Amino acid sequence: MIPEAFHSRLEALSDAFLRENEKLNLSAMRTKELNWYGNIADSLAILDTPLLHPDSSDLRILDLGTGGGYPLLPLAICREKCRFTGIDSIGKKMDAVRRIIATLEISNAEVVTGRSEELGHDPAYRERFDLVLSRAVAPLNVLLEWCAPFAKVGGRVVAWKSMKIDAELTDSLLARAELSCHLTDQYPYELPAGWGERQLLVFEKTFKTHEKYPRPASVIKKHPLR
Which domain holds residue 179? Predict the structure, then answer.
């Protein structure tokens, strides 16, 4: 799961992240082992799918709710010919990720501080991305409303999820129809060292997103699509 050619760079990422995590609560993964399996290996699960094969190039990829920089940073290290953008509303976390990017000289990654329900209406970001990734952010019916506006028509939204999400999938049926995001693939994977089985859900966006989406955060919270 972890490409050997990038092992030393990923080790450096882990060290830089843990230093930042001592100063700011970026993640509950506070030891090298926890961060390696719970953040880095988990982020890289997508490399074992056709979505980001070794020859991938010129793809524009968004990590929505990047938090401490996962999956943004490990993927940017391992797919140097793709362009990565991370967004999150918490400025202190984004400042920490910027420092890690500068320290490790990750030239193909950037971060933007802002809320998805606002940036999703910004022409600089709306329907600009080939892949929109999100890990541990929200239930699917909410997550798709945040993610879909950023994806190009024909692009994909990829969500990191547990194996037990039958109810979540059912609750997302209206959101999938309304946002033209159709579930095309489910990729189960098992993390090393007994960390268990998880999966990636892949949704293909087939039509432009209606201009009313994403709605304001207060509306999404009170009236999620379902």
Answer: 4-222
